[in-house]
Amino acid sequence: MHRHAAFRKRADRTRGGRGHQRHPVVPDSPDFGGRGSGDRTSDESPETVNSTEHLGQITNYRKRPLAFLLHYVRRHRTAHLVILGSVLLAVICSVCTQYGLKGLIDVISQGPAAQGVWAAFAVLCGLIAADNMLWRVGGWVAARAFVRVTGDVRSDLFLHLAGHSPTYFSERLPGTLASRITATSNAIFQTENTSTWNVIPPIVAVCVAVVLLTTVNPVMAGAVMAVSLAMAALIFRLARNGTPIHREFATRAAGVDGELVDIISNMSVVRAFGATMREHQRVTGAIGEEMTARRRSLIYLEKLRLLHAVLTAFITAGLLAWGVVMWQHGLATPGDMVLICSLGFTILHGTRDLAVALVDLTQHVARLGEALDSLLVEHDLPDHANASALKAGPGHVTFENVHFAYPSRPAVLNDLTLDIQPGQRVGLVGASGAGKSTVLSLLQRFHDVQGGRVMIDGQDISQVTQASLRDMIAVVPQDISLFHRTVMENLRYARPDATEEEVLKATEIARCRDFIEALPDGFNTMVGNRGVKLSGGQRQRLAIARALLKNAPILLLDEATSALDTESEQAIQAALDTLMEGRTVIAIAHRLSTLQNFDRIVVMKAGQVIDDGTPEGLANRPGPYRDLLRKQAPVAEETRPVLRVA
Ligand SMILES: Nc1ncnc2c1ncn2[C@@H]1O[C@H](COP(=O)(O)OP(=O)(O)OP(=O)(O)O)[C@@H](O)[C@H]1O
């Protein structure tokens, strides 16, 4: 199969929703319409882009911006051929108009009795009309085709971006990534526009003009062509030399966007620390660097244009003088003089326009290259080449001699072994930095382990598709992220095809229906950026409802109730109890009393399990858990400790 066709097919497949196997409904779990997350077929799992097939294609273009552009041009081949055809014909008509003019003048100069005046007139008018109409045909088709290309590009880049690991995102500013996607699509649009309207027309015009000039004076045509080509080559070469300057500008511009988004998304912190002026200075610094880079880029272009203007003035003067001398020696008719002048100008202006357009084009291609270079990085956590869907089971989780370190950091987990039976509720406790969150991350395969294996129902999670792995796991995180969308859309994120009845049922169990209905627009209320218009407790209950709708056999909880009043805590605790029914649960808890109803407590220290047993068993014998309990005892008397939900 052709490589590009394969790329397209795969991209289409990833968009269209794959039929990967989903786990069955957890038998003992509460019924939310009798459907497991396995029924969620319309959701486009971003993990699907981890397909190594897809990776093998799009990342090939990382260093080949023009090949990348051509790939999308081929997707709309017919439209681009129509555009090219109409531009070529339009330019040919436009240049031939000058020949038509010469014909008319030659006939007219024979006197009023000359034959064929109206025929020459008709030819000239026909050429002018065709010239104008053909441009419009090209413009009409381009208005659709070029815009489609920009849409395809952004959509594919997003798909690729979404397949990167958390490490990729933690090392980059979201604003920079977003701005690079936009920059890529803008650069492609500009490249297509410049090529179609500013590069191809002068090339064709110059070629046709030279052919026509040959009919008057072949030597003159050859000389003009040679000089023009030499000049265009010189300008283009100089333009290419400026590429690093233009790329520097593109990098700085993306940097400013990244800084702005980072600061704006942390505006509450900026205010809390009275750091507005500090941030202003920082942004001003970044803008200053971008301005310097932009100035250098523009001045470089201006120098090139100046050079071309000077050369053009000299060559035009030479050409005109040559024509006058020919006329003086009776070697040229008045019509020939008109033709020499107009074709000479066509060639000179054509090469000038071409050189300028090529300069612009190299700048657009440089921007495109810069953006692709940073976006088309290979996924660092692709699905295994022979990955198959995780076969749904009851949710048996095993960590087998797991060794793990974050990049350039000392080991976080050392030979960790943990066996969690299906349906077991396990609380992970231990000092800050012990590695509890890392355990949850590794189970979701946010990173690959460096030693040992993580297994679900006897299957190594590094060997299964990430989409099927995510389907097995529901997460209630500590920091609950909501989209700036309606409450309903946020709830349905877990299962877009959930019926209204299922959503209502989940919100009732999660104790959030009452407060949602009290919101100004009920379920259609926008929750604000990351959910700021809701309280912490309300966001947590929404997250629980979302997890209920997902209905996965494994549930990860990370410290959910830390900042709540007693009433909210009780509501959330009750909701969590329902959510945990019939699932394998791994919960991170700092406040130990929330784990009293759990089957098992695992105490971690420096990446290892140092104690393991039932809450009562561990509480009743000397050991790290009892020490932790005693440390928390005074706190427990004042405030009822609660589970921290993931
Ligand atoms: N993305 C990351 N990159 C590099 N190091 C990390 C990353 N995440 C965590 N760490 C480091 O790994 C160690 C374990 O962190 P982890 O978050 O797993 O601990 P924890 O027991 O969950 O702590 P806490 O209870 O404070 O949340 C810490 O030293 C932390 O600095």
TrEMBL record:
Pfam families: ABC_membrane, ABC_tran. Residues 81-363 form the ABC transmembrane type-1 domain. It is found in: Cell membrane. It comes from the Bacteria. It is a multi-pass membrane protein. The chain crosses the membrane at residues 81-101, 113-130, 195-213, 219-239, 304-327. One of its GO terms (cellular component) is plasma membrane. Residues 1-23 have a biased composition (Basic residues). Residues 1-55 are annotated as: Disordered. Residues 397-631 form the ABC transporter domain. CDD domains: ABC_6TM_exporters (cd07346). One of its GO terms (molecular function) is ATP hydrolysis activity. This is ABC transporter ATP-binding protein. It comes from Rhodovastum atsumiense.
